[in-house]
Design brief:
Elements (H helix, E strand, L loop, with lengths): L4 E13 L2 E7 L12 E4 L7 E3 L9 E4 L9 E4 L10 E10 L6 E7 L4 E8 H4 L5 E6 L6
Antiparallel strand pairs: 1-2, 1-5, 1-7, 3-6, 4-5, 7-10, 8-9
């Protein structure tokens, strides 16, 4: 297995109420401590997500992982965000995937209180990005 690195930066959850957009969440990576804001888990023998200063998208820090395990999923990063009282919710993030093998993948999901919905899922063949890619997803009305 190659050295796999997933980089995640600038997670922003926006809600548009009427004509004004309001930012209701920001990743908090610049604090330097993922453990205060994120629930991090990893499979036995896998590396967990870390806060890194190597090649951030913006600012000085970002989340990074080199899972190092064939167990799926090897490393997970979760944060609960209340969207109660908001509508027209959009999730924006930037990510860069480097060194994925054929069996590796990256998933971005949201949980509506009952089920998880996959927003983005990549396979290794299409996922090696030289640069950060900006992603934006309008969540369905159930996220309101």
């Amino acid at each position: 297995m190659k050295n796999i690195i997933f980089l995640l930066a600038i997670v922003v959850l926006l809600s548009i109420n009427g004509i004004n957009a309001e930012q209701i969440f920001f990743d908090g990576f610049e604090s330097g401590d993922l453990n205060n804001s994120w629930n991090l888990t990893s499979a036995n023998g896998a590396n967990n997500w870390t806060n890194s200063t190597t090649n951030p998208y913006q600012g000085t820090r970002h989340a990074q992982v080199a899972p190092g395990s064939t167990t799926t999923p090897a490393s997970i990063m979760v944060r609960k965000i209340s969207t109660l009282g908001y509508q027209n919710i959009t999730l924006n993030y930037s990510r860069r995937l480097v060194g994925l093998d054929i069996a590796d993948e990256y998933k971005s999901k949201y949980y509506n209180g009952t089920n998880c919905t996959v927003l983005e899922e990549t396979g290794a063949a299409a996922a090696n990005d030289a640069n950060y890619l900006n992603k934006s997803y309008s969540l369905p009305s159930i996220a309101n």
